[in-house]
Design brief:
- By secondary structure, the chain is mainly α.
- The protein is built from 12 helices and 2 strands; from the N terminus they run ααααββαααααααα.
- The termini are far apart.
- The model has no long low-confidence stretch (mean pLDDT 90).
Length: 314
C-alpha cells in the first residue's frame, strides 16, 4: 500500500466518521433513519462555497459557519417537523417518510440556490472543487492540508464527546434521555431540549464534513444523497445506537472503499472505478444479514460470554 492511498483512506474515513456520528445522534433520539442527513452536509458545502466565491475566504476558516448553519437547519427540521409528529404518536414509518420529504425539499432548495449562483452571479455552482495546501515530505509523499484538518477535527470530536457524555451533567442527562426518555422526564430531565441539542450537533457535524468534501471530489446539490449510502453503511456497521461504533464503522467503510476499489481496479480483476459505491452497499447488506445490531453489539456479547465462562470456571 503506497502512502497516497493510505492518506486518501484516512481522509475519507475521517469524513465518514463525522457524518456517521451525526446520523447516529439523530437515530438514537427518535429511532428513525434520517434520510435528510446527507443534505445537511450539502448545506455545509454551499456555506463554505459562498464565503469562498464571494469573499475569497478559505473553507478551512469558514468551518464554524458551516457547523452553525447546518446545525440550525437540522434543528429546525426537528422542531418544525419531527417533534410535532413524534408528539402526535406518528409511527416510525411515518417519521421516516417525513425525513424523505425533508430530503427532497432541501435538495430542491439547494438546486434552486445553485441555479441562482449561475444565472444571477455567473458563478460555477456545480462540479466545483476547493484548492488545498499541503506539505511535500518527499517526491513520493505529499501531506494535504485536508488530512491534517480532518484528523484534528475527528480527534477533537472524540475527546469532546467523551467528556460531554461522561463528565458533564448535560451529558449524563442526554444519555438518560436517550436510553429511557420516560424515566428521565420523571427525574426532571428536559427530554425535548436534549433531543434538540442532539439534532443541532448532528447537523453541525454533517456541515463540517460537507465543507471538507469538495477538497476531495466535485460538489453539487446531489452529493449529499450520493454520500448517504456510505453514511448508513458506516452507522449500521458500527451499531446505529452507538456513537463510538459509528466512529469504528466510518473508518472500516472508508478504508474498505478506498483500498478495495484500488485492488479491484488492478489485475486480475480490472474492474471500473464506477463500481466503487458497490463496496459500502455490500458491507451494508452483509451487516444486516450477519449482525444487524452492528459490530459493537457483537463485541458486547463476546464480553458477556467471556464473563460467564469465567464465572462457570470459578
Amino acid at each position: 500500500m503506497n502512502a497516497t492511498l493510505l492518506i486518501d483512506a484516512i481522509i475519507f474515513g475521517n469524513l465518514l466518521v463525522l457524518l456517521s456520528i451525526g446520523l447516529t445522534l439523530t437515530y438514537i433520539t427518535l429511532k428513525i433513519p434520517n434520510f435528510a442527513h446527507g443534505d445537511f452536509a450539502t448545506v455545509g458545502i454551499y456555506v463554505a462555497y459562498y464565503f469562498l466565491a464571494f469573499h475569497k475566504i478559505s473553507p478551512y476558516f469558514t468551518l464554524p459557519a458551516a457547523f452553525l448553519i447546518s446545525g440550525c437547519v437540522a434543528l429546525l427540521s426537528y422542531l418544525l417537523v419531527f417533534k410535532p409528529l413524534n408528539s402526535r404518536g406518528t409511527s416510525i414509518v411515518g417519521l421516516m417518510v417525513a425525513s424523505i420529504a425533508i430530503e427532497v425539499a432541501l435538495r430542491s432548495i439547494l438546486h434552486i440556490y445553485a441555479d441562482s449562483l449561475t444565472n444571477v452571479y455567473k458563478i460555477i455552482s456545480r462540479g466545483f472543487i476547493f484548492r488545498d495546501f499541503g506539505l511535500q515530505l518527499s517526491e513520493a509523499v505529499f501531506i494535504p492540508g485536508l488530512l491534517i484538518v480532518s484528523s484534528a477535527l475527528t480527534i477533537a470530536l472524540v475527546i469532546t464527546l467523551y467528556i460531554l457524555l461522561t463528565k458533564t451533567k448535560f451529558g449524563i442527562a442526554m444519555r438518560a434521555a436517550i436510553e429511557n426518555p420516560d424515566l428521565a422526564e420523571v427525574l426532571g430531565v428536559d427530554v425535548n431540549k436534549v433531543y434538540a441539542v442532539s439534532w443541532f450537533l448532528a447537523g453541525g457535524l454533517a456541515g463540517l464534513a460537507g465543507a471538507l468534501v469538495p477538497f476531495r471530489m466535485p460538489a453539487n446539490p446531489e452529493i449529499g444523497w450520493m454520500l448517504l449510502l456510505r453514511v448508513f453503511s458506516s452507522s449500521i456497521l458500527g451499531g446505529l445506537s452507538n456513537i463510538y461504533g459509528a466512529m469504528l464503522g466510518g473508518y472500516i467503510v472508508g478504508f474498505a472503499e478506498v483500498i478495495g476499489i484500488q485492488v479491484l481496479a488492478n489485475p486480475p480483476f480490472n474492474l471500473s472505478t464506477a463500481y466503487r459505491p458497490a463496496i459500502p452497499f455490500a458491507i451494508l447488506i452483509a451487516t444486516l444479514l450477519l449482525m444487524p445490531e452492528g459490530i459493537t453489539s457483537k463485541i458486547k456479547l463476546e464480553k458477556i460470554a467471556t464473563k460467564l465462562r469465567g464465572v462457570r470456571k470459578q
